[in-house]
Design brief:
The complex is a heterodimer. Chain A is α+β, with helices and mostly antiparallel strands. Helix content of chain A is 14%, strand content 32%. In chain A, strand 2 (74-80) and strand 3 (83-90) form a beta hairpin. Chain A starts with 8 loop residues before the first helix and ends in a 23-residue tail after the last strand. Chain B is mainly beta. Classes of the chains: A alpha+beta, B mainly beta.
Chain lengths: 169, 639
């Protein structure tokens, strides 16, 4: 059947169901919510380290299937004191990191909340799992790529200091 | 007496001759002159290709037909059969190698009258459709080794239809090296669906005796291409080591780089503070003074760059170089740019390997430098326009950009028009962007923004907004209709190509017509991995995009379907309220969706020129505007 992404009834139905699921599961963190409009900041979501919070809980579900309108890539549904939060960890994780993020694993995530199309997502910057801290985003909120082991000279920058990371990378 | 006898004799002879002449003209027939013709001869063939050829013989009462021959002897191919009756076909097989001068002459000679013949010249091209010469290739995409950005560029030489050698630079963060290309194991051919295929076998640096594990699949790279002339193609990497998009251009021997160059490089850069690679886009103007010894010196006074290095807290505008040099060309036309930024705290030394295409283009790959980037890009010469830019008021530019934001991969395309006068003014136009969360389902009108132009051709666009998102853009002009662009936003880092809109009259559906080479790239709905595709496409100037008969699109989706050839792609387009003045069409494409093949995806098409003609080369930039997946495509008119 030929159909566009916005007229395919199966896709819409699946999207609505998943969106509804996320809406039910996601606990608003309105105090730290960044605005959906991004004046002067560009196309991507605004990320403000000054509004970061730390989320502690257990991975209830690892979501790899995209939901229409949500940030692409892997999401973790993390159950904790805030309820169940949809934490976005993105598409650029290393194989080792993907393997480390399993259902039932305790996890601590530093990030900020993004309100998007009526849903809220916790944009993860640092994920600590199994004693290792993994950098997901930089301080500007852009997703990072794993660095291949044993590569060349490391450049030290005068950027804003961020945590030393290690772990499954 | 003797005189009288002589006059009598001459008179008698004249009368006899006249009688003989009268008799001849009135009583006997001269046989009609035999003529030979080769109707509608084939004009171009690839090496070893076959074509049916026919000769028509007229006035041959013997009906003996023709014999076939060709030149240069021994290097011009063969015929089967070697003699044919008038009007009957012979099968001509082109030589296996391109002959000297790239041309053969086939001749049909009358059997009855061997003094009568007809000839036709056939241009022989290397298999794959490209002529002999050296070709510069340049691609950027995703490496399988790192699942992150990578770049490769180089040059290979085709002689007699065979690749004889070359050189390339590759940077995928894990491997950063310059390697020779081994003629042994390198081929050029045509795929079953009619596309160009280039297989390159790389060496370990200059050592071609072993297997190079740093590039391609154990040193073997496969690129498929869609030709838009016998000398240029759009490429995609078509193997399991990477997927990427890029270009192939016939190399023209060139003088040392000289004058101004607009340049842009993009990809990622290593951030030691977090031990990860982060998105990066850098652009600027390099003004090079050529030295007598073939090297060059970068003018620190007239060069400038902007860096959207997301390892830094904010984009860095108007940076300068403390010094810079360009090495002399090697035998493959490769140079090295050594750039030393003034701000040594934020920017280390940058080394760029550059492959000179001609006096206007240099393809770039970052080397193993302390800047620690994994970037590739291009430098476009400004020539006589260097340092003389005074206004762009009234000009409009189509741009296609790709990169990253906090949601993952981000693509954008649009047309930006400069208002005002002199070196500043407002920005209008239309923009589309897509990161699968923020999507312009219909082209959005730009409602605000300003620009300034400096003499180097660097345009700073600030606060450009469609009312939803506001972005900042740096554009670097060449003055001949080409441009490079990067975003200077806190929340994204994009880079891409720009084209000055041109042509008389207004845009219409008819502006999108004729045959194109297409190159598309993007990601699936989950952004698990990049895909890239090439193939031919025909726009009918009314509403439809179709694949030419017998052709297909070749697509590589890394880690997933892998390289798949012969896909069928179709599409549609229609005018919008922005078509007439801005060249914006909307429509669909089917066949490029890697997530759900049957999806008909929504697209917006940005036209560069108002008419499609070979004298007015046309590029169309297309962007997917739904949440099915991300696709940015370029259509290049066949020349």
């Amino acid at each position: 059947m030929r159909c566009t992404g916005f007229t395919n009834p199966n896709r819409i139905f699946a999207g609505l169901l998943t969106g509804l699921l996320f809406a039910i599961l996601t606990i608003p963190l309105s105090a730290q919510t960044a605005p959906e409009s991004r004046p002067g900041r560009g196309f991507g979501p605004v990320y403000d380290v000054a509004h970061e919070t730390t989320l502690t809980g257990t991975i209830q579900e690892v979501v790899t299937k995209h939901t229409a309108g949500s940030p692409a890539g892997m999401h973790l549904l993390v159950a904790g004191a805030h309820g169940v939060v949809d934490a976005h960890v993105g598409p650029f994780l290393s194989k080792e990191t993907k393997e480390a993020l399993q259902t039932g694993m305790p996890v601590q995530i530093v990030g900020a909340t993004l309100s998007l199309h009526g849903n809220e997502y916790f944009l993860a910057r640092l994920v600590t799992v199994g004693g290792h801290t993994i950098t997901i985003r930089n301080t500007r909120g852009l997703l990072v790529f794993p660095h291949p082991q044993g590569r060349r000279v490391a450049k030290v920058r005068n950027a804003a200091a961020v945590e030393t990371t290690g772990g499954a990378r | 007496m003797k005189i009288r006898q002589s006059i009598f004799l001459l008179t008698a002879l004249a009368m006899i001759a006249a009688l003989v002449g009268c008799s001849s003209s009135s009583n006997t027939k001269t046989p009609p002159v035999i003529s030979v013709a080769i109707p509608t001869p084939v004009t171009t063939l690839q090496t070893s290709a076959q074509a049916a050829i026919t000769a028509n013989v007229t006035n041959d009462s013997a009906n003996a037909g023709v014999t076939w021959s060709c030149a240069p002897s021994g290097a011009c191919g063969s015929f089967s059969p070697t003699s044919t009756a008038s009007g009957a076909q012979t099968t001509y097989t082109a030589p296996s190698a391109v002959p000297t001068g790239n041309t053969v002459t086939v001749t049909a000679t009358s059997v009855t009258d061997p003094t009568k013949s007809a000839s036709a010249n056939i241009t022989i091209t290397a298999a794959g459709g490209i002529a002999d010469g050296s070709y510069v290739f340049s691609l950027t995409g995703e490496s399988a080794a790192t699942a992150a950005p990578f770049s490769v560029a180089g040059v290979f030489t085709v002689n007699g239809g065979l690749i004889t050698g070359g050189e390339q630079d590759i940077n995928n963060a894990a491997t950063i090296e310059t390697d020779l290309i081994n003629g042994t194991g390198s081929t050029v051919s045509t795929t079953a669906d009619g596309n160009l295929q280039i297989v390159l076998t790389t060496c370990n640096g200059t050592d071609c005796t072993g297997v190079d594990t740093g590039a391609g699949l154990n040193g073997v790279e496969t690129f498929n291409g869609s030709l838009f002339c016998t000398c240029k193609a759009l490429l995609t990497e078509f193997d399991g080591s990477a997927t990427a998009s890029g270009t192939l251009d016939l190399q023209t021997p060139s003088t040392a780089p000289s004058g101004g160059y607009a340049f842009a490089i993009a990809g990622s850069v290593f951030d030691a503070a977090i031990s990860a690679n982060v998105p990066l886009a850098v652009g600027g103007i390099l003004d090079v003074t050529a030295n007598p010894d073939g090297t060059g010196t970068v003018s620190v006074a007239n060069s400038i760059f902007d860096a959207n290095d997301t390892a830094l807290p904010a984009p860095s505008f108007a940076q300068t170089f403390a010094s810079g040099t360009v090495s002399a060309q090697d035998s493959f036309g490769r140079v090295t740019f050594t750039l030393n930024p003034t701000d040594t705290v934020d920017f280390s030394q940058i080394l760029l390997g550059g492959y000179i295409v001609d006096n206007t283009r240099i393809r770039l790959v970052e080397g193993n430098d302390s800047f620690a980037g994994t970037t590739g890009g291009t430098a476009l010469a400004q020539g006589a326009n260097t340092g003389t830019f005074t206004t762009i008021a009234g000009n409009s530019y189509v741009a296609g950009l790709t990169g990253f934001d906090g949601n993952g991969v981000l693509q954008a395309a649009g047309v930006l028009a400069a208002g005002g006068s002199g070196t500043s003014g407002g920005v209008t136009g239309t923009i589309s962007y897509n990161d699968l969360t923020a999507v312009t389902l219909t082209p959005a009108n730009i409602t605000g923004g300003t620009y300034t132009l400096d003499a180097t051709g660097r345009v700073t666009m600030t606060g450009v907004t469609d009312g939803t998102n506001t972005f900042n853009l740096q554009i670097y002009l060449t003055g001949d209709g080409h441009a490079l662009a990067i975003t200077m936003d806190a929340s994204d880092a994009l880079a891409g190509l720009g084209f000055a809109q041109n042509g008389s009259g207004s845009y219409s559906a008819a502006s999108f017509s004729s045959s194109y080479a297409m190159n598309a790239g993007g990601t699936d709905i989950n952004e698990t991995d990049e895909f890239d595709a090439v193939g031919p496409i025909t726009a009918d100037g009314i509403s439809a995009l179709t694949l030419p008969s017998g052709t297909g699109v070749d697509l590589n989706w890394l880690f997933n379907s892998g390289a798949v050839a012969g896909l069928t792609v179709s599409g549609s387009f229609a005018t919008t309220a922005n078509t007439g003045t801005s060249g914006v069409l909307t429509g669909t494409m089917t066949g490029l969706d890697v997530t759900t093949t049957a999806n008909t995806d929504a697209f917006t098409y940005y036209l560069v020129t108002t008419t499609a003609s070979t004298s007015n080369p046309q590029v169309v930039v297309a962007i997917e505007t739904d949440t099915n997946q991300l696709t940015l495509a370029y259509f290049q008119l066949l020349e």
